[in-house]
Design brief:
The complex is a heterotrimer. Helix content of chain A is 63%, strand content 0%. Chain A is flat. By secondary structure, chain B is mainly alpha-helical. Chain B has a domain of 236 residues: Cytochrome Bc1 Complex, Chain C (Up-down Bundle). Helices cover 64% and strands 1% of the residues of chain B. Chain B is built from 14 helices and two strands; from the N terminus they run H-H-E-H-H-H-H-H-H-H-E-H-H-H-H-H. A two-stranded antiparallel sheet of chain B has the order 1-2. Chain B starts with a helix and ends with a helix. Chain C has one helix and eleven strands. Chain C has a four-stranded antiparallel beta sheet, with no helix packed on it. A four-stranded antiparallel beta sheet of chain C has the order 5-6-7-8, with no helix packed on it. Chains in contact: A-B, A-C, B-C. At the A-B interface, helix 1 and helix 13 of A face helix 4, helix 6, helix 7, strand 2 and helix 10 of B.
Chain lengths: 270, 366, 144
Amino acid sequence: MKRVMVQSAVLLCLLVVGVVDVDAAEKSSCLQCHADLGGPLSKPVGLWQASVHAENRVSCHDCHGGDASELSMEAMSPVRGFIGVPKYGGVPDFCGRCHIGVKEDYDASAHGLALNNGGAQCVLCHGDHAIKQADLDLINEQSCSRCHEYDRAAKIRTALAEVDSAIALLDLEIKQLFRTGIATRDMSGELFSVRNDFHRLFHNVDVEAVTAQSASFLERLEKTSGRVDSIKSDLGQRKLIGAVVVVLLIAAGILFLLLRRTYGENKSPR
Amino acid sequence: MKLMQSLVDWVDVRLGVRQIWIANSSDYLVPRNINKWYSLGTVLLVLFGLQFVTGILLLIHYVPDVEKAFASVERIVNVVPFGWLIRSLHAVGSNLIVVVLLLHMLSVLFMGSYKRPRELTWLSGFGLFNLGLILCLTGYLLPWSQLSFWATTVATDAAGALPVIGAELVEFLRGAPSVGPQTLGRFFALHVVVLPFALVGLIGFHLFCVRRNGISTPPFGPDARPAKVGGFFEHEKNPGGIPFFPNYTLEEMGVVCFFLALLVAVTFFAPQIFVPYSALEPADPFTTPEHIKPEWYFLWAYQTLKIFPSKLMGLVVQIGLMTFLALLPFIDRGAERRPIKRPIFVTVYVLILLVMIGLSIWGHYS
Amino acid sequence: MNDHPVGAPPRRKFLAVLLGLVGAALTGFFAWPVLRFLAPAESVQGAGKVQVAKSLVPVGEAHLFSFNGRPAVLLQKKPGEFIALTAVCTHLGCIVKWVQDDQELLCPCHGGRFSAEGVVLSGPPPSPLERYPVSLQDDQILIG
């Protein structure tokens, strides 16, 4: 018996949790070398880590090419698909490999048409490496007036605000549902698609088009928010029933104890 | 009613069931000063019973396959009618069981009930405590979430700190070099067949011990005396005590209802307190989630491993503590059970408890 | 019960009845979810109609498919003439087989024989195979 107990104690402790090196699994050779280089060559590492790309596990080689499993300069050989840094005018094509829809709208916009004359391109607003997800705050006086007057941009911003806040609210609600264990993939997929199309709208920088399309976006959002609301009302009902059961159980507990008192301390008769 | 009566009569004539019933209910006297802490065993019995029921129900829809496990659990929670309730009760119930196991063990320790002649009751109870924890550990691999995968990876990895056999042992526990389909297969078999059978058997033995020795008298009040230590077997009778049934059973049922109310309250109002974010994402063997922490009841062990310079030392300390606890009735052999007359024991008890709580909090925030 | 000085029996009876009521309500609250959990899955949306590609049922041959959760068989006896029948034998529920040489259905369990229209030819089956309505839509056969 003694040995069995010792064994089970050992087994328990073996099963008990230790520590692992969390980072080891995810490091690419790009990050490993560049982090240690120092100076401007290591700056992108930190910037990237705070970016929306890092958040979604889009790593260096996904944009710059090369072989992230190779731990030598060979990783940056053109043979391994290394692209390196695009020129100013090449940036829209560079980013547009993934952001196809956005690029389409950008190309047709005032910004895109003026690209070869120094027109604004992706990183001017979104930043490089520390890439930010498109949101309303990217449209601000400081940023826009680097090239032109702010008034048109301000109008676009106002037109976008309603849809933008509706998306943000819905996004938060869906995240809260997910936290409670609800499968939200469909809903967040719908929202993602609306947000995607909506973010394309940012890029045509056309005040009239933006104003005209806002209503249709709100309509699309209503479908998703309808589903969210019905789930939330279900959850509310569950809580109500749960409260009733809790009260009943407590009542049963009290009744048991009261019933016990009617028996006092005496031996009950046979 | 009459039919029922004659049915019982029929069985009684053949097996004498009424005699057994009376001997174990109204004629079974328990100490007059028995307190609410003594009902925790019954609470555990009910909670384990609930785990069996909800577990069997989950088994109907769960698929033990790495490709399908997560989706099947997601289906249970979102599609199957009341699946969310069954799943939540099972998950919250397991945590509540650990809470009650701890309370039960702490009260037995404080009242010195583990002492002679109840060493076997203590040993089987300590075994049940470990079985409960291993059931928890094997259970949370099954949904094949990020939490499942990495908690199991880290937990099995700890065995690697043992000298000589470490590496082989890790691979044996996992059934493969890394956690994968083989691990899920063996943990599944353990969780739904092997461990429940072991649990039922050990509970049976534990209850047999309790009934055979008689319930220990609480070591409080003016009449409290040191444990009787004789050289032969003796059932501890409690002349002038109260009948186990209905008097004490009713009290126990009351306490059971309060714990069930707690279980239902957590299940309906805050099920996510026992569900970390990483439990909501499907397992990804190539991405370790950041800041993974073990379940709350393993935090003390996790922190112990972290503060010692080598993993082996941490492991040895843990094994030492568990072995010490298991063998306590053979180490602490005095007959005295009144806490007020055992200042050293009570001091050590409180200190260890505080250290464990402190380590857990430290582990949680580190 | 008369030798009980403490605990008036009426009070005990009242508490017991009350407890019984609460217990019954609680039993209901726990039993209902379990029953619903175990209830058979509700029929899938769009049930009642099944599409099968014409190319799967050559002339003189049979195609087995699932119709509303039960096995069914689709036959093309003459070109363009499709027949859909349940494939579950009316005797003891085995699945019938299409015997191409005889152009009839045979139940392998007890030798029940059915015509291509589902009529019992011989053997123990007590009733003909149920026939489902069939309509054509482009290159698809619509059953139900």
